[in-house]
Amino acid sequence: MKKVFLTYILISALGFLALAQEAIGISEGLNFDSSSEKELWEAGQQNPYLLFRAVEAEGSLSDDKWDDLVAILDKKFKKKGTHLNVLRNIFEKSHQQLFKTYEQHSTFNDMMIVGKYDCVSASAALALLLDRYGFHYKVVETDYHVFIVVNHEGNEIILESTLPIGGMITAASEVVSYLEGYKADESVALKSLNQRLGAPKIDLSDNAIFRKVNLTQLAGLQYYNDAISHFNEQSFDKASAQLHKALQLYNSERIEGLKALAEEQASLLASN
Fold first, then answer.
1. 215-232 vs 236-249: helix axis angle to the nearest 10?
2. In 3D, which of 104, 85, 215, 203 has the Cα closest to residue 161?
3. DSSP category for residue 190
4. Is 102 helix (H, G, I), strand (E, B) or coil?
C-alpha cells in the first residue's frame, strides 16, 4: 500500500511539473508588461480566472470582491442548487458587487478594482460563476459584442451583461428575437478589425461572426480588446505584442488580421 501511495504522489508531481513546463513553453517568445502578468498568464493556463487577471496586471491585485461575491452565491446555491432563482442571483449580485459602471474596453482588473466593466469582462465573470455552480451555458462571440446563453431545463435564457435591468431574458419570444438580431451571414466580411468588442448591437446590418467561445478564447478576446486600444493610439509594436498573446489563447481570423495590420503599420512607421 505504501508503494502504491508513493507511486501516486510521484505521478501527480510529474503531472504538475509537465503542466508547469507546458505553460512556460507557451509563454516563450511573448512580451509581458510585468512579472505579475507573466506569472498570471502561466498559472492561468490551468485557471481561467487568473488568465483574465493577467491583462494590465500592474500593482497588487486583490481577490476580496470576488471572494465576497462567491461567498454570497455559495449560500444561495447550497439551498437551491441550479435553480432559476440562483441563476437570477448570479446575474443580479454580479451587478451589485462587481458591475458598477459600463465603459467600453474595461478589463477584468478594472472591474475588480473600480467596478468598470464591458461585455467581455462581465461575461467572463458570469461564465466563471456559471461554471462554479454547474449551469449549462455558452459564451457567444459576435462582430462587436459578447453575451451568454444559458440552457436551463430545456429553455434558453440570455444573460446580457451590459443591461442591469432587463438583461436576464427568459421569455422565449424575446430570446428568439435577441438571437435573431445577431445571426451571422457567412457571406459577410467583418467590417472593422480595430473596433472593440464592447457594446450591445446598434448596427442592424448583416453580421459576420456568431460563434461559441470557451473561457480561454474569451481571455484571448480581452487581449484583443487591449491591443485595439494601443493600435488606435498608433502604438503598433505594443498592439502586436498583445495580439501575439491573444493568438496563443484564440487562433481567430480577426486577431490574426489585426496582428498583420499592426505589424505592417509598425514597419511603415520605422521606415519613415
1. 170
2. 104
3. P
4. strand
Contacts of 51 (CB under 8 A, 6+ apart): 40, 41, 44, 45, 215, 216, 219, 249
Q: Give the C-alpha separation, 41 to 36, whole Å.
A: 8
Q: Distance between CA atoms of 14 and 80, rounded to whole angstroms?
A: 39
Spell out the residues 6+ positions from residue 104 whose beta carbon is closer than 8 angstroms to its own: 118, 196, 198, 199
User: Do residues 146 and 152 make contact, with C-beta atoms less than 8 angstroms apart?
Assistant: no
Matching residue, cell 498573446? 245
Asked if residue 11 has pLDDT above 60, the reply is: no
Burial class of residue 12 in the structure, from the number of CB atoms within 10 Å of its CB (0-12 exposed, 13-18 middle, 19+ buried): exposed
| Res. 210: pLDDT tops 90 | yes
Q: How far apart are CA 181 and CA 164, in angstroms?
A: 20
Q: What are phi and psi for residue 97, nearest 5 degrees?
A: -95, -35
What is the rounded distance in angstroms from the CA atom of residue 178 to the CA atom of residue 195? Answer: 22
Q: Report which DSSP code applies to 205.
A: S
The pTM of the full predicted model, rounded to 2 decimals, is 0.87
Q: What angle do CA 202, 245, 264 make, to 5 degrees?
A: 75
Q: Which of 54, 52, 29, 49 is nearest to 39 (CA)?
A: 54
Q: Which three cell numbers stand for residue 254?
A: 480577426
Q: What does the pLDDT look like over 16-45, one tens digit per residue? A: 444 444 444 556 689 999 999 999 999 999
Query: Looking at residue 6, what is its pLDDT?
Result: 44
